[in-house]
Amino acid sequence: MSFAIAKLYYRLKIDGSISFSEAKSKKMKKEIERLIQLGIVEEARVNSGKVFRICSRRMFDAEEGRKWKNGVEAALEEYDSKSEYAINSNDSKSGSISYPTVPIRILNFQNVTLDGTPLTKENTNNIGVFSTEILESYLPSIKIKGELVMIENKESFLFGDSYFPDASAIIYYSGRTSKRWYDWLESNTERIVFAPDYDPVGIEEYLIHKEYLSDRIILYIPENLEELFKHGKKKLYSDQYHVLTRISKQSYSEEIESILDLIRVHKKGVEQEVIFKPKTVI
Cβ distance 105 to 131 under 8 Å? Predict the structure, then answer.
């Protein structure tokens, strides 16, 4: 499978869409046409212009699994992205997407195991909170007991331990995740707290995780969420309206329906930066 196709799938997986101008190679265009015919991708217009976006996440995941047994991320790691991308494009900066990583913040070393070796309680006492970044393909090497918190925004992730002091670890997941994440979470942690942006994409991503993880995952909902919608962003509503339309076709729990109602009434979404603010100097 070519680098261009792998790059296309990775962009669709992470962002949910790719702009018309970015999908410029013949291989990308041909694959997009095929995905449209299969009902996996659709063409749409947003404020920034024409895009191709996923309209069936389940079918997309299945198609990715058919092409790459270990996921598109693993395929991308096999490429020398900088050299190959330089041949096919003038924008070598995009080569950086070839190595997806996962920032992780360890709060309780005693509950974290790396490659089968448990970290000691003394690490927690001596080091305190420790942050690192690993290749996504290395996720299976990490085992976590207790509570894992998933946070969507980088800034909120950096001081998440102020809000979740009892967690074993906190992970920054950046909007969209892959089947590799679901498989890892399913065979790993005892309890997962999911803290997204409160916009259509954030809620949809929680619902996808809920399907895989059932009662082991809970949605973090601030007590003053309704008040926070006054400080929301209309762009999160307008740009993600197609996602809201898609997920509104089903019925959900009372807590999910109440959040969707807030999004509809205010015509806004709330980013985590409004919710999680530093309690201490980092």
Answer: yes
Whole-number Å distance between alpha carbons of 250 and 270 = 22
Composition of the chain by helix, strand, coil, percent to 5:
50, 20, 30
Domain stops at, among 23, 58, 90: 90
State the pTM of this model: 0.64
Closest CA to 231 of 195, 280, 198: 198
Strands (E) located in 74-190? 101-106, 112-114, 117-118, 130-135, 142-144, 147-151, 169-172
Both 76 and 115 in a single domain?
A: no
Q: What value does the mean pLDDT take over residues 261-279?
A: 87
Q: What is the CATH number of the domain that holds 178?
A: 3.40.1360
- pLDDT-derived band at 93, boundaries 50, 70, 90: very low
Taking only the tens place, the pLDDT of each residue in 211-220 is 888 899 999 9
Q: Range of 263's domain?
A: 101-275
Q: Is the pLDDT of residue 124 over 60?
A: no
* Sign of CA pseudo-dihedral 186, 187, 191, 197: negative
| Token pair in block for residue 36 | 């449209």
- What's the structural domain count of the chain? 2
Single out the residue in 46, 65, 90 at which a domain terminates: 90
Q: How many CB atoms lie within 10 A of CB 119?
A: 17
- Cα 31 from chain centroid? 23
| pLDDT at residue 217 in the model | 95
Q: Is residue 74 part of a domain?
A: yes
Q: Token pair for residue 22?
A: 């970015």
Here the CATH number for the domain that contains residue 27 is: 1.10.10.10
Mean pLDDT of 37-55: 83
Rounded to whole angstroms, how far apart are CA atoms 134 and 130?
13
